[in-house]
Amino acid sequence: MKKRINLKALIVNSITFIILMIAVYFAYQFYQSNNFNEFLRSEAKHNLSEFKRDEKIKYSEINSYNITSNDYNDAMFSKEIQVQKNTPYRVTCMVKTKDVEAEKNVSSVGAQISVSNTTERSIAISGDSDWQEIELIFNSKNRETVDIAFRLGGTAGYAKGEAWFSDFKIEEGKNDENSRWKFACFIFENTNVVIDNKDINIQVTEADKTDIKNTIDRFESCCKTLSEGKMTADCDIYDIQEPITSLSYDDEFGYYVAPEDIEKQIKDTINQNNYDHIFVVVRLGNEEYEDDIEIKDWIGLGSMDYYGIGFSNIRLPNSSKSYIYKYSTRVNQFPEEVFLHEFLHSLERTAKEYGYTIPELHDYKQYGYENEYLIGQKNWYKAYMNKEIYTANGYIGLPSEIYTLKPAKKSNFSYAYTLDVYKEPQNIIEEIRGIFENLFRNIKLVIGEL
User: Fold this and answer.
1) Domain boundaries 180-404, corresponding CATH code
2) Beta-bridge mates of residue 43
3) Which of 171, 172, 117 is nearest to 146 (CA)?
4) Which of 157, 227, 234, 427 is the one with CA 20 to 30 A from 18?
5) Which pLDDT score, from 0 to 100, does residue 433 have?
6) In the chain, what is the straight-line distance between the N-terminal and C-terminal CA atoms, in Å?
7) Which residues contact 229 (CB under 8 A, 6 or more apart)?
8) Which pLDDT band holds residue 27 (cuts at 50, 70, 90)?
9) Candidates 3.40.50.11780, 3.30.70.100, 2.60.120.260, 3.40.50.720; correct CATH number of 40-175?
10) For residues 351-370, b (16+ Cβ closer than 10 Å) or e, as one string?
């Protein structure tokens, strides 16, 4: 006997199947737009930015990570990763931007890679740009985990616009463990700035350049001598004719040169070499303009960095009669002191970041040292650099290994190892597994917040 077909049930089942397939399709599309692959999303100003996975605008086969900020904000995708202590790392990605604009026209704000809650960052892309690779190079120092952020904004301010990030990659490099330090010394011949609606044009003289170059030679020698051979210094000098056209301001120090003020003049030189420290020599006043640029009692400023490389200001004195950078047996037998002092500030900062307990560089009087006639604080620096500062609990100062803890740079990645932390799902099974893993992870986060 023939089995009768229930036409009504067949139609209902077919419609149910179609609806189910449509639901699955839209659920999958939703998943594709909202699967952030373990990245956390955060923003400084809540509910101003949108985050999504973009299947239309992408660099490769995988959907790109998109941040859209219609108002100024600091928004990011971030993921905490495990790292080895004192190890160089390089993070790269492809980035594309549209109408990206920094709130205060700061070059360090835009689409970038950064280590959250630090100043460590890549270059920042603004405006309209097609896909390009950017990189963040850093040393883990004393950390075992770091939070890597792919960001529209920055520590220095907010940005708006749209940015797409794709093809994330992180590599582990190898330290350069020698104690040979390579310095880039930029002498800016012209400072052309507008301060309080006044056009100020100041030039470095040939006599200034001669004094500075002689002083840099002495700095090379004193690094080896005062460290008792624990380090050597090799300085490359660059005369920069393109003027400084902007200065930064700080309530404590007044006007100074920040890395952002001169990045366009130095970036190619830095990118083509493997420098460990940067000196910027600049004149910000002379007898004619001494009251027009506010300087609050500094001749050198350190503890700054340019993409992880130590960065110091060396200011030429306003008076052409000053002997601060001139050697004289009767007036100044230690003209390289400012260079050494500012470099030691970078070592001081590095030592603290690696977890060492050391005395403050400025606390020489506390340990019985003086600013002596003719040689300044030379005896203090020698004790500081060799851990020979006597206290009741033993000798303190910079640890000897500090001279091998140089900043991470491109040369550390000749034989790099790629970490598998940004792997995207390769098939539907991995994607389904990712859905459940993300679901359970979010449930745990919610429970943990209760």
Assistant:
1) 3.40.390
2) 75
3) 117
4) 427
5) 61
6) 64
7) none
8) very low
9) 2.60.120.260
10) beebebebbebeebeeeebe
